[in-house]
Amino acid sequence: MAIEADVAVIGAGMAGVSVAYELAGDHDVVLLEQEGQPAYHTTGRSAAMFLQSYGGPVIRALTAASRLRYDEIGGLLSPRSLLWVAPAEQMDRLDAVAAAQPELVRLDPAGAVARCPALRLDWVAGALLEENASEIDVLGLHQFYLGGARRRGASVLVGAAVRGGRRTGGRWLLDTAAGPVTATAVVNAAGAWADEVAGDLGVPPLGLQPLRRTAAVARTDRVDRAWPLVGDVGETFYFRPEGAGVLVSPADETPSEPCDARAEDLDVALAVERINEATDLGLRSVVTAWAGLRTFAPDRLPVIGPDPAAPGLWWLAGQGGYGIQIAPELGRLAAAAVTGGAVPEALAVARFR
């Protein structure tokens, strides 16, 4: 016998649980996760920060709107400033960021080194400071939405990969690894697998591209927990304190198929090399390394809204590297779309048709 629901949400990462939370209570919701546990892939591997200076104007607006929800929930943000740094060859880009975001504080090389003494004074040509940036408790946010959705009556099925589906009698009938599911509406929040899910439902894909991002924790005997997140404005590396070591990344964006991403030794070495060039940390030993997939639409904006070619199918995908920090507002917007609310034109899926 098929499980019946008003809305079936495919994917139990941050996107899926946030929209399920917003819909549950007023609607009968079932959340379908292909893995044996929610948040196994990108959500569970994110070293997310809340950065209001990260991304273009649309992303920054979504971030500002999400801040209200973070403040309502409470306890999920821990202060850690952001320091954008630039060597001489990146100063034009630094100037452009400063012009677009006058709220950032301009620092000279000495000011940048004062904020993070590991930086080499002869490498830094300029910097911008976002004082009110924060680390995000990713697990805490995910559990807020997942637990809240369950308390509002949502069902969560793990090991429930969607293998196919069709629209019949005004409802979707989904073939899943956990058995058949029928729902009036389906939300495709499958992250890196969103285009594959669309294909399984007989719907044209949107051209979403998963990109691998690598991170590692390296040992160092001179780290101060008060240091900011430091990233070059050209986005070729970033680092921040992590326990007794330093979290490092080459800020890579390597095209990938949807998969259980793994860190490549070359990418880890590249992160260490770039950070050693900009600092005197002298990183050598890596404790652990991992990778996740950040999935982008062709215009690098999130995809939200109804699929014009498939009645009853909604998208919540393509969050790229911003998905955690803007999850509260995206979840709210996606739920509103399913229930007949408006979606900002810049985010609507119709732009792909």
Overview of the structural elements:
The chain has 2 domains: 3-45 and 138-207 and 298-352, 3-Layer(bba) Sandwich (FAD/NAD(P)-binding domain); 82-131 and 209-294, D-Amino Acid Oxidase, subunit A, domain 2 (D-Amino Acid Oxidase, Chain A, domain 2, 2-Layer Sandwich), CATH 3.30.9.10. 26% of the residues lie in helices and 30% in strands. It is built from 8 helices and 20 strands. The strands form 3 sheets. Strands 5, 6, 7, 13, 14, 15, 16, 17 and 18 form a 9-stranded mixed β-sheet that branches. A hairpin with a 5-residue loop joins strand 14 (229-232) and strand 15 (238-242). Helix 1 (14-23) packs parallel to helix 5 and helix 2 (57-73) crosses helix 8 (327-338). The longest helix has 17 residues, at 57-73. The two termini are 36 Å apart.
Shape: elongated
Provide mean pLDDT, rounded. Answer: 94
* pLDDT < 50 stretches: none
CATH architecture title of the largest domain: 3-Layer(bba) Sandwich
Write the CATH homologous superfamily of the largest domain.
FAD/NAD(P)-binding domain
Percent of residues in helical segments? Answer: 25-40%
Q: Largest sheet at a glance?
A: 9 strands, mixed
Computed over alpha carbons, the radius of gyration is 21 Å
CATH topology of the largest domain: FAD/NAD(P)-binding domain
Which band does the percent of strand residues land in? 25-35%
Number of helices: 8
Write down the secondary-structure element order.
Answer: EHEEHEEHEHEEHEEEEHEEEEEHEEEH
Question: What's the total count of β strands?
Answer: 20
